Amino acid sequence: MTGFVSNTGTWLSNLTVPYVLYQATHSAVWVAWAAVAQFAPGLIFAPLGGTLADRRDRRLLLLWAQIGLAVVGFLMWVHWAFGARQPVVLIGLLTLLGFLNGINNPAWQSLVNDLVPRPDVFSAVTLNSLQFNLARAFGPGVAGALLATLGPSWAFFLNAVSFLFVIGALLVVRPHATRQRPRVREHPGWRDVFGVIRGNPGIQLTILVSVAIGLFANPIFQLTVVFAADVYVVGPVGLGLLTSALGVGSVLFAFAGALRRARSRLGRSVSRGLVVLAVSLVAMGIMPNLPLGIVAATAVGAGFLASISGVNTALQLLSGDLVRGRVLAIRHMFYSAAIPAGSMLQGIATDAWGVRWATIGAGTILAVVTVTIARWPGRRGFAVLDDARDEEPATHPNAEQRSAS
Fold first, then answer.
1. At CA 249, angle to CA 252 and CA 371, rounded to 5?
2. I need a surface site. Which of 7, 87, 191, 358 has the fewest CB within 10 A?
3. Residue among 129, 157, 164 at smallest CA distance from 143
4. pLDDT tens readout for residues 108-131
5. How far is 243 from 266, CA to CA, in rounded Å?
6. What are 308-333's pLDDT values in tens digits?
7. Could you tell me how many helices (H) and strands (E) the chain has, helices first?
8. Is the pTM of this model over 0.85?
């Protein structure tokens, strides 16, 4: 529940920032710069975040990161409420959020694995995605109503307050007894981490798919402001409905996915999700009006969650506990690089040729990437994601002896 409240606040900000930037500049490139500021710093801080997540108490690490995010959230509110309202300042504050998220995200994702027994990891990851996407469905609708009535200041303020709920929960939560990490005298180094990645085609594929999603799918979450303003010609409420549809589609998939505990078909779930995602992006670029655009956006959300939750689950299960934080951090680095790169490229394409053609092009390229992975000669395609086993993967040559000592 606390995660839902916090992520609802985050989606208030995620919709408000591109909205106010586009209203002030009428440029999709400025909207793209917001994505760059929010995600690019993860390239720098994700390795540190992964190392800390493997070597420190993940709960305490996450607690301090959330406190920092709350402080920046309040600064964003103060900046807007007191009339500064400069796009450059807003981009600067988003950059601070990006640095803190580089620490926060590896700890957050690793902590999910610590809170439940290993057989329940799939359900835990999917339920975590469920609350995130419930917030994605609910937050933009609230943001649209706030923007149309009370203005952006309230959206920024409620986002800042929402972090306090997670901080309160982290003060009382404890890892599950069966997921306590063994004490070791020497943690695996980064060479061991890269060795795990080089030797595991499943982990490599999760990174590749994450990059494809970041480049070609994630930018749609910023470009809804352009669809609403230039294509459907609707105000904040219509924008909120369109963006909420992305979350509604994710929720519809997540309810079904949370009931499936079998992990034998992760590869099929990811491949089918990518197909749905690619086709629905093309459809969204074609739809002539807001109601049909909402239908396409709902399909985009379902395909997005089907693919990204399958990737996240596979990565959790394929990574050993002593290196999980850093493996997740490396994946986060690539994903964090792909999102701003894709947002900037699609922002430039949108300013040049229009948001419809930019979205159709992105969906088409994603479809080509999906077919290429599935049909690549001599490879197993998406089936390598099903190689996760019930036991912990080996991550250190002397892990058992070090644990015993």
1. 105
2. 191
3. 157
4. 666 666 655 555 555 555 566 666
5. 27
6. 878 887 887 787 667 777 787 788 78
7. 16, 0
8. no
